Amino acid sequence: MSGPMNRYAAIIDACVLGGGLKRNIILSLAEAGLFRPYWSARILDETEKAILAISKGTADPGRQRRAIERAFPEAIVSPSESANLFGSLPDSDDEHVLAAAIAARCDTLVTDNLKDFPQDVLDRWGIEVMSPDDFITNAMDLDHAVAIGALRDMRARLKDPKYTVSALVLKLEGQGLLQTADFLREYENLI
After folding, report:
1. CA torsion through residues 8, 114, 60, 44, sign
2. Beta bridge partners of 130
3. Residues of the chain falling short of pLDDT 50
4. What phi and psi, each to the nearest 5 degrees, are found at residue 17?
5. What is the pLDDT of residues 86-140, one digit of tens each?
6. Does the pTM of the predicted model rise above 0.90?
7. Pick from 17, 26, 11, 109: which is nearest to 54 by CA?
8. Neighbours of 134 (CB within 10 A)
9. Nearest to 30 by CA among 153, 178, 162
10. Which of 47, 161, 168, 170 has its CA 20 to 30 A from that of 125?
11. Residue 130, CA distances (Å) to 69, 102, 147 in order
12. 62, 65, 1: which is closest to 30 by C-alpha?
């Protein structure tokens, strides 16, 4: 897909990709062309660990990773070791995420751990840190019709369990995705 929407790039942190519903929504919006997702091999390694922890061992993280890689083969980025970010973030274990965002020339870094990525540090590279809820809402605001179609298709794919829009809204609210839940509630008859 071409056009101005497709130039918007975001690095998606493992904590976001680890949760099934967040992952489904974000990747559905990416598949619809609302933004370009990026991650590194290390982020996907951490995603597998997060999926295993969140599912308490019931999910197959390798299968989930392969599905992500098949759907977005162009999303993998190799951060440069020369980025030299040592000590720039509160937790040095997060520096690889910022390095991947820099390597991919991302506009946004999407994470649940906002405090781990101080905006004043990210400003050096012109990267904005966003919560998944803010990011999803911004992506949907780019084109409501495309977003509604993507969410409708995603809901149709969810089979185990199958969700009514109302049940999906409650699940989103339970995960702190309040703006996203409001969007679905507003367009419930279309999704």
Report:
1. positive
2. 110
3. 1-5
4. -70, -20
5. 788 999 899 999 999 999 999 999 999 999 999 999 999 999 999 999 999 999 9
6. yes
7. 17
8. 17
9. 153
10. 47
11. 23, 15, 19
12. 1
